[in-house]
Specification:
alpha/beta; 216 residues; 5-stranded parallel beta sheet; 11 helices; 5 strands
């Protein structure tokens, strides 16, 4: 089954470019387009895409609020891939905090766009650029530090979280730690539960905000 994608951007040329790149792949299908975040909910419910490629800045409803609404109201929601012009945009960071699963620059090369969609669809690794890591560290809070301290991660769970923060997939973490993939999945689940995180993105943000992982 192909990975199905919904494109959301207020610039028709951007949508056309993304569609051309993605539809050239045999395993990816663009199932719809929207010009604003306000149109996302009905389209997601109707089309059930695997991935929503979402612009951050749009006139009626921005990508941050659209991400929040999708994740709050849609059962089994799609993965959200943030698409933006500037990698150090605070809007991007807020979208990731809201629950977006990855990040893509509009100027990315075609191969990078395709890779990003596939990676987010798989859901086992993150697109978390250095600039966003730095923003997360700068937004660090005492609450984040307290949450990390209360989590009392084991040594192995801490190692898994550090590798997650570097963007490694479960298979890559397993190879690095010389354990089975299922063991890594168990550790990832434990980390999410202890941090009260919905997904990997939220756990990694907590790691940077608390200072548990440095942005460098």
């Amino acid at each position: 089954m192909p990975v199905t994608v919904l494109l959301v951007d207020d610039e028709p040329l951007v949508r056309a470019g993304l569609r051309a790149v993605l539809e050239a792949q045999p395993d990816i299908e663009v199932v719809g387009e929207a010009g604003d975040g306000a149109a996302v909910i009905p389209l997601v419910r109707q089309l059930r895409p695997d991935v929503v490629a979402m612009d951050v800045r749009m006139p009626l409803m921005d990508g941050i609020e659209a991400t929040r609404v999708v994740l709050r109201t849609v059962p089994d929601p799609p993965k959200i891939l943030v698409v933006t012009t500037f990698e150090n945009d605070e809007y991007v960071y807020e979208a990731l905090r809201a629950g977006a699963d990855g990040f893509l620059l509009k100027r990315a090369r075609p191969a990078e766009i395709v890779h990003a969609v596939r990676l987010v669809a798989e859901g086992e690794s993150l697109l978390f650029p250095a600039a966003v890591r730095q923003l997360a560290a700068e937004y660090g809070t005492s609450k984040a530090r307290e949450t990390m301290e209360r989590a009392s991660l084991t040594e192995r769970e801490a190692a898994v979280l550090r590798l997650m923060a570097r963007g490694l997939s479960n298979a890559e973490i397993a190879a690095r730690l010389v354990v089975g993939v299922e063991t890594v999945k168990t550790h990832v689940s434990a980390v999410l539960a202890k941090l009260g995180a919905r997904d990997r993105t939220q756990a990694v943000i907590a790691a940077y905000e608390s200072g548990f992982v440095a942005p460098g």
